Amino acid sequence: MTVRVQSDPFDAGAELNAFSKTSTDVGAVVSFTGLVRDVPGGLQTMEIEHYPAMTQSAIERIVAEAESRWALADTLVIHRHGKLQAGDTIMMVATASKHRADAFAAADFLMDYLKSRAPFWKKETTGEGASWVAGKDEDEDALKRW
After folding, report:
1. What DSSP character marks residue 71?
2. Long-range Cβ contact pairs of 42-45 (< 8 A, separation 24 or more)
3. Sheet of 121-126: strands edge to edge?
4. How far apart (Å, rounded) are the C-alpha atoms in residues 107 and 130?
5. Which of 14, 82, 120, 142 is buried deepest, with most CB atoms within 10 A?
6. How far apart are CA 11 and CA 140, in angstroms?
7. CA–CA separation, 39 vs 48, rounded Å?
8. Highest mean pLDDT: which of 31-35, 112-116, 136-140?
9. What are 90-125's pLDDT values in tens digits?
């Protein structure tokens, strides 16, 4: 398990290549890379705040839960904080398993839980001003299937 919460940009391709080489007994690697999307009115910045120790341990608990539910050889989660622009890479999840079903299910689970339960606070600034991003009902609904 690798969990990194960082302000620095990262190269998702390089991260995936390195992750894919960590074990020779896997048959599947699934990855998801999240990007900062533009919003109506034009996103100037998205600022992501967090409490470092709290965020790190919360994400590690989510990953440990995934690793206890599916047969995973390895897991990678990277999430950025600080000021980001539309199009910036904001996060990445990768799972490795002997079989694709476990890798896909675990990655999907991680994305749902990271979206709703990881302790990040996001503020979007547009030409109309700044506002905190509220949780979405559909993100909460997605958790019900797990």
Report:
1. -
2. 42/126, 42/127, 43/85, 43/86, 43/124, 43/125, 43/126, 44/125, 44/126, 44/127, 45/83, 45/84, 45/85, 45/124, 45/125
3. 82-84, 43-49, 121-126, 129-132
4. 32
5. 120
6. 29
7. 16
8. 31-35
9. 999 999 999 999 999 999 999 999 988 899 999 999
- Domain residue limits, the chain: 2-127
| Token pair recorded at residue 139 | 């993100």
Question: Residue 134 and residue 137: Cα distance in Å, rounded?
Answer: 10
Length of the chain: 146
| Nearest of 20, 2, 10, 6 to residue 60 by alpha carbon | 2
pTM above 0.85, yes or no: yes
Instruction: Give the CATH fold of the 2-127 domain.
Output: Aldehyde Oxidoreductase; domain 3 (3.90.1170)
**Residue recorded with tokens 């299910």:** 105
User: From the CB of residue 144, how many other CB atoms can be counted at a distance below 10 Å?
Assistant: 7
Tens of pLDDT, residue by residue over 55-97, are 999 999 999 999 999 999 999 999 999 999 999 999 999 999 9
Residues 20, 59, 91, 6, CA torsion sign: negative
